């Protein structure tokens, strides 16, 4: 869509100021929530093993590692083909931001899974009474941050007690582990927004001489959600509503990126609802901010449905995340 950005008159329109206020308020609220969480010391009860063990008992963590590595390679190949076909201009669109972020998640998850498999392989059998039982014990019997007492020997008139201290999960979490959880929650809302908006809203109005749906474009708007939903069906990562904050920050960063590019060199918007020349722009921007809630909530419902259905259908083999078990 063509727009004139040669003078200040475009940026001094009243709707531009209102849209800027909406954008700044959304960013400020998200940042304040992050700072409040950091200052309160609220970190949750994430068990490090939840990052690399499957949610299916007796399934070796290497299978989750293989899946994550395959997803990363497949998405990297698709992104390479897209850039080779259309050039780096594709990163002008929110789709490629989301796609690259999901790919980064699988790359980071592969690294974390590899490290986890090394921990799993080095775990002495004497401590776990079998490696498969280690996963069960780690997910069900661990007491976070509290001493656990076990009977070691019972003799004449005494009982020998061995006290173990299980450190809190957050003491063991490093930068990569925390970043993995953040990217996972950000990707969830982003793929729902990208793919649903493309297939249900944009595509019906884009058919014509200027746009043709190809297999590559179709894969770019579906493979990311497919791989991430399948990942959610396999992993034990908890999913909280607070991840909506990171999702909002990603979208605000993209809108700010578009504003800067449009002010400097571009004369058109990649999506019609970002156009600031129409008096309806404030309503579009307000709606754009509000739709983050249902799109993120849709993924929350998927996770809850997974836990409820698998717990009922496979009670002996399905394992919840440790933080989710503590909430029951």
From TrEMBL:
Single GO cellular component term: membrane
Superkingdom of origin organism: Eukaryota
Residue spans crossing the bilayer: 12-35, 65-91, 97-114, 182-205, 211-230, 242-271, 283-302
Keyword annotations from UniProtKB, A to Z: Membrane, Transmembrane, Transmembrane helix
UniProt keyword Transmembrane helix present: yes
Protein name, entry field: Uncharacterized protein
Lineage per the UniProt record: Eukaryota, Viridiplantae, Streptophyta, Embryophyta, Tracheophyta
């Amino acid at each position: 869509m063509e727009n004139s950005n040669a003078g200040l008159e475009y940026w001094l329109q009243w709707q531009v100021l209102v849209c800027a206020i909406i954008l700044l308020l959304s960013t400020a609220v998200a940042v304040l929530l992050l700072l409040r969480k950091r200052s309160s010391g609220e970190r949750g009860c994430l068990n490090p093993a939840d990052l690399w063990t499957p949610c299916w008992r007796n399934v070796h963590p290497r299978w989750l590692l293989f899946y994550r590595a395959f997803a990363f390679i497949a998405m990297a190949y698709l992104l390479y083909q897209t850039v080779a076909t259309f050039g780096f201009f594709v990163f002008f669109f929110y789709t490629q931001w989301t796609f690259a972020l999901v790919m980064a998640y699988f790359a980071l998850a592969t690294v974390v899974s590899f490290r986890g498999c090394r921990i799993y392989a080095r775990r002495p059998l004497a401590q776990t009474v079998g490696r498969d039982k280690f996963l069960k014990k780690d997910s069900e019997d661990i007491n976070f941050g509290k001493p656990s007492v076990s009977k070691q020997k019972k003799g004449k008139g005494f009982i020998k007690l061995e006290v173990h201290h299980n450190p809190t999960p957050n003491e063991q979490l490093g930068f990569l582990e925390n970043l993995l959880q953040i990217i996972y929650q950000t990707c969830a809302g982003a793929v729902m927004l990208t793919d649903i908006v493309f297939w249900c809203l944009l595509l019906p109005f884009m058919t014509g001489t200027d746009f043709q749906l190809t297999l590559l474009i179709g894969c770019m708007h579906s493979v990311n959600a497919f791989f991430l939903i399948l990942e959610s069906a396999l992993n034990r990562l908890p999913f909280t509503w607070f991840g909506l904050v990171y999702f909002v920050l990603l979208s605000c960063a993209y809108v700010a990126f578009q504003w800067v590019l449009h002010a400097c060199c571009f004369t058109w918007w990649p999506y019609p609802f970002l156009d600031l020349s129409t008096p309806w722009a404030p309503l579009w921007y307000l709606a754009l901010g509000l739709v983050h809630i249902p799109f993120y909530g849709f993924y929350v419902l998927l996770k809850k449905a997974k836990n409820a259905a698998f717990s009922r259908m496979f009670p002996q083999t399905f394992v919840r995340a440790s933080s989710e078990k503590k909430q029951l």
